[in-house]
Amino acid sequence: MRLRNVQNAKEIVNNSDYVIHNPFQYKGHFKEIFGNDNPIHLEVGMGKGKFIIDMALKYPDINFIGLEKYESIVCRAIQKLEGKEIKNLKLMVVDALELANIFDHEIETLYLNFSDPWPKKRHAKRRLTSELFLPLYDAIFKGDKLIIQKTDNVGLFESSIVSLSNYGYVIEDISLDLANSERDNVQTEYETKFVAQGIKINYLKARKK
Ligand SMILES: C[S@@+](CC[C@H](N)C(=O)[O-])C[C@H]1O[C@@H](n2cnc3c(N)ncnc32)[C@H](O)[C@@H]1O
């Protein structure tokens, strides 16, 4: 998904008011960015931003942050936002490994949508639901820890259920065919493509007290 050919990616990101530049300085103070006490929901690995933008439009009383590792991809989200003023949406360009250095018990829901599956066993720790990442999430959540995952990848889904359960999460809801279920759902970029191809989407909602 890495887009190497976006011209001026750095400049576009640096000039966008949607982007939280140097997010580390806001640790513990993210509500000040939004200017209200509304809950903050985070998507890690937002890609080109379709999901987080549509969620922010659909739920104006929730603040949304989309986090993505690559400037060249965040650029695509910024391009989608041109001419729009969405007050409850911010983006950041950072690696998820930094999460515990950015948020201090401020996030109410974490979305992991179509995360890279890292199928090889030797790369298992890189999965965003691995034993490496779950302790980092402990530091970002306010109150209950709530993770919502969607993926086409059965291997990633299975390993997520195991690691989340081993780490004390309870799987509250699950679907092996989200598109044909009754759940309220906003599709991501990847999801829309997969659903059009008839690929089934796995969904889970996991909570840890
Ligand atoms: C397969 S894409 C899915 C994009 C989007 N969530 C969707 O469903 O359309 C995964 C995205 O996660 C990003 N990503 C992977 N590892 C990451 C990390 N450690 N920190 C932040 N973003 C990451 C990738 O750059 C990529 O844009």
Fold topology:
Elements: H1 9-14, H2 30-34, E1 40-44, H3 50-58, E2 63-68, H4 71-80, E3 89-93, H5 99-102, E4 109-113, H6 134-138, E5 145-151, H7 154-166, E6 170-175, H8 189-196, E7 202-208
Parallel strand pairs: 1-2, 1-4, 2-3, 4-5
Antiparallel strand pairs: 5-7, 6-7
The protein binds S-adenosylmethionine.
The site of S-adenosylmethionine has 21 residues, from strand 2 and helix 8.
Count of separate DSSP helical elements: 8
Find the structural class using helix and strand composition. alpha/beta
Bound compounds, please? S-adenosylmethionine
* Total E-strand runs: 7
So what's the overall shape? globular
**Arithmetic mean pLDDT:** 96
Largest sheet geometry: 7 strands, mixed
The radius of gyration is 16 Å
Written overview of the protein:
The protein is α/β, with parallel strands linked by helices and 209 residues long. It has helices at 9-14, 30-34, 50-58, 71-80, 99-102, 134-138, 154-166, 189-196; strands spanning 40-44, 63-68, 89-93, 109-113, 145-151, 170-175, 202-208. A 7-stranded mixed β-sheet has the order 3-2-1-4-5-7-6, sandwiched between helices. The chain starts with 8 loop residues before the first helix and ends with a strand. The model has no long low-confidence stretch (mean pLDDT 96). The structure holds S-adenosylmethionine. Residues 1, 44-47, 67-70, 73, 95-97, 113-116, 188-191 line the site of S-adenosylmethionine.
